[in-house]
Amino acid sequence: MKRTVNQTSPGMQLLYFVVIFAGIFIVLNILGILLVGLIYGFDLIMDIARLDFTNPKTVPALYLLQVVTTTLPIFTAPMVFGYWVMRAPEEYLMIRHKVKPMLFVVAFFTMLVSSPLIELLGNINQQLVLPKALSGLERWMKQSEESARRVTMAILQMQTVWDCVKNVFLIGFLTAVAEEFLFRGGMQSIFVKWTRNKHAAIWITAAVFSAFHLEFYGFLPRLLLGALFGYFVAYSGSIWPAVWGHFLNNGTAVIATYMFQHKHTKLNPDDQHIFNFSGYIFSLIIVIILLVVYKKIAEAKQGPAFNGEELG
């Protein structure tokens, strides 16, 4: 992998990274609100803020807001950091193109069998209660999650197959690309350099990734997902298996929601009590085995020099 000539410390790199993201995020959020106001009217912005989605223009406005205020800044920030600040995009974005196809196959099965484990962590997460001293914070988190849930459900009201395809592309593909470039590309690369330990970097990044979504009651399952994506990147040296895994997770959720809405299945995607204890144990064991297989396949392709030199 190409080495950067930039000698900036990892701590300063992280500071630059956060400042770049914050700046781009603020600018594009202002732009997104202005665009929605100019195109659909500023009254609609107030309706969205009040979670009033009765206006038929709400859904296209939410699509525009999603792309401009969330997806674009999440994608643009690591690109600016990797290409123009550090001038080492391969090193900080992990955009290698030559990835062994079998890694995508193993990643697919890893995501498939991780579902029971994710459900278990979600159920555990739902039982967590903050101390009474933090009851105000807990109340705010519940309100925030409910607001986010209502916005998501407004977007996911799919009347046609075309609506499903749009959401698979927007929520499944674009979100996967943007978030993986931000977290597993830029951020995890910085933490690998800072901690000199790939496992620490993976789990720290996964924790930031999960916290970023501001959904306390989904923190643990999203932490696991972030770690899986992190290992996909760390062992392969490429961002693309993680993008693939992230896309599978998001895209499957969209399709499952569409099928449930149109009564093609009785399985509610929001049901968190599908599997039993045996399923949880089986899921844990198989996920670990698949990660070991993934690592061996990746190492066979890359050779020991890459693992020792790049990942520490």
Explain what this protein looks like in three dimensions.
This protein is mostly helical and 312 residues long. It has two domains: 1-93, no CATH class; 94-311, no CATH class. The protein has 13 helices and no strands. Residues 1-5 and 303-312 have low confidence and may be disordered.
Question: What topology emerges from the helices and strands here?
Answer:
Blueprint (H helix, E strand, L loop, with lengths): L9 H31 L1 H8 L8 H28 L3 H5 L7 H13 L1 H13 L7 H21 L5 H35 L2 H15 L6 H18 L3 H22 L15 H26 L1 H8 L1
Helix pairs in contact: 1-2, 1-3, 1-8, 3-8, 5-11, 5-12, 6-10, 6-12, 8-9, 8-10, 8-11, 9-10, 10-11, 10-12
Number of strands: 0
Instruction: Give the rounded overall mean pLDDT.
Output: 90
Described by strand count, sense and barrel closure, the largest sheet is: none
SSE class: mainly alpha
Keywords: Hydrolase, Membrane, Transmembrane, Transmembrane helix
Organism: Mucilaginibacter litoreus
Enzyme class: hydrolase
InterPro entries: Rce1/LyrA-like_dom (IPR003675)
Quick description:
With 312 residues, the chain is mainly alpha-helical.
Salient structural properties:
2 domains; 13 helices; disordered N terminus; disordered C terminus
